[in-house]
């Protein structure tokens, strides 16, 4: 019997048992759809993280207190960075363009009968350039504000809306931790970064933050939460990181473990990419289990089919069909079920990815590799799990088969 005839017979048999064939394919459909959707969503999460890091600012470096080991083993981070460190980086590191020191806290902000608990950032005028922020109305902090400890504040877009609604906040007075601040500006909307709303922030002069709100507790100078810096070019980021590390080691008189960590934008993005990539692989592996379950379902149904078609098999063998012909027919049926399930599952997975892309910020994309691998695996599963029932059918004795029918 030629292959074309086997294909026709397999198709006729499967169409004659539509419900059973559909239920057999269901596990394969769900498995393929899950794998493709999980891989697409995982890649979308990686793209979103990459885009959000790009909005932070060009050629960005973060200098944070505590060594990498310290930051991973304690919640109370050491306060080892001071304002003098930031000034030294700005003046003594030739590959650095701008430096923005920061003191961060979360405090109650009040205007008349409205209040909100929001992030307060004490910083300098360089923050706009380093962190790629823009002012929508009014102005930002100036060096004069720093020198005079002026109690002025630039509000993030969401904070301004919560406190003032549609009213103009410029010139109004708000209270931050029982201290009065005049609103001098409103920032352009920036959006969220890794779940942190950057528009839910109020910006005040760094010196005012230290002297009026959080206090000075370090004998070495004005303590900082961290320092942001931007390199002069993409090519100078590595040199900037090296120079900053050497400078701070000299300033802090370090001979053993560093009491600070310098991270580039690429370093942080690589960490996030490793995490999201690992989660994608984990989710895809879990989804692939349903492919295995679907393959077992194919084998079970094909074994039932062999039992039900004992008379047909005996009759065909009595008329001269070889074991190879019976084997090929049942293998073809198993592969058709798995391949058809794979194709339908692929279409379903692509639909899920498109829906997720429309209703969420994830830039979910369709992975041709995931589709090719998933469909190939589903077809291979049909072939693999179809061998046992196909061999059982091929080995049936025609006389016994006809007698037991």
TrEMBL record:
Residue ranges occupied by any MacB-like periplasmic core domain in the UniProt entry: 21-247
GO molecular function, one term: transmembrane transporter activity
A single Gene Ontology CC term: plasma membrane
Membrane-spanning ranges: 21-42, 279-306, 327-357, 369-388
Membrane topology field: Multi-pass membrane protein
Domain ABC3 transporter permease C-terminal positions: 285-398
Name of the protein: ABC-type antimicrobial peptide transport system, permease component
Record keyword Transmembrane helix present: yes
InterPro entries: ABC3_permease_C, MacB_PCD, Macrolide_Exporter_MacB
Pfam families associated with the record: FtsX (PF02687), MacB_PCD (PF12704)
Keyword annotations of the record: Cell membrane, Membrane, Transmembrane, Transmembrane helix
Predominant localisation class: membrane
Similarity comment: family membership: Belongs to the ABC-4 integral membrane protein family.
Subcellular location: Cell membrane
């Amino acid at each position: 019997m030629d292959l074309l005839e086997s294909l026709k017979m397999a198709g006729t048999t499967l169409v004659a048992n539509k419900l059973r064939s559909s239920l057999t394919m269901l596990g394969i459909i769900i498995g393929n759809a899950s794998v493709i959707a999980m891989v697409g969503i995982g890649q979308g999460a990686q793209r979103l993280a990459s885009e959000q890091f790009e909005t932070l600012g060009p050629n960005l470096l973060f200098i944070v207190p505590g060594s990498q080991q310290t930051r991973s083993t304690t919640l109370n981070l050491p306060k080892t960075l001071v304002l003098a460190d930031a000034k030294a980086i700005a003046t003594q590191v030739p590959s650095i363009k701008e430096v923005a020191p920061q003191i961060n806290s979360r405090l109650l902000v009040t205007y008349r009968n409205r209040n909100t608990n929001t992030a307060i950032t004490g910083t300098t005028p360089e923050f706009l350039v380093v962190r790629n922020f823009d002012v929508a109305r009014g102005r930002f902090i100036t060096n004069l504000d720093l020198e005079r400890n002026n109690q002025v504040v630039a509000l993030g877009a969401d904070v301004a809306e919560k406190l003032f609604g549609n009213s103009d906040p410029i010139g109004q007075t708000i209270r931050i931790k029982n201290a009065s601040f005049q609103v001098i500006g409103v920032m352009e909307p920036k959006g969220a970064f890794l779940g942190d709303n950057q528009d839910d922030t109020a910006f005040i002069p760094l010196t005012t933050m230290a002297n009026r709100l959080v206090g000075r507790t370090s004998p070495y100078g004005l303590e900082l939460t961290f320092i942001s810096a931007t390199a002069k070019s993409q090519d100078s980021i590595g040199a900037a990181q090296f120079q900053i590390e050497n400078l701070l080691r000299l300033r802090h008189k370090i001979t053993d473990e560093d009491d600070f960590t310098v991270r580039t934008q690429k370093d942080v993005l690589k960490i996030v990419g490793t995490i999201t990539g690992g989660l994608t692989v984990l989710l895809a592996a879990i989804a692939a289990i349903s492919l295995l379950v679907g393959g077992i379902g194919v084998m079970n149904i094909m074994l039932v089919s062999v039992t039900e078609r004992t008379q047909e098999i005996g009759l065909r063998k009595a008329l001269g069909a070889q074991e190879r012909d019976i084997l090929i027919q049942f293998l073809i049926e198993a592969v058709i079920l798995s391949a058809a399930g794979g194709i339908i599952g692929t279409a379903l997975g692509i639909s899920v990815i498109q829906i997720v892309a429309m209703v969420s910020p994830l830039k979910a994309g369709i992975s041709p590799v995931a589709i090719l691998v998933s469909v190939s695996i589903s077809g291979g599963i049909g072939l693999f799990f179809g061998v046992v029932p196909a061999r059982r059918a091929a080995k049936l004795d025609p006389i016994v088969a006809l007698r037991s029918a």
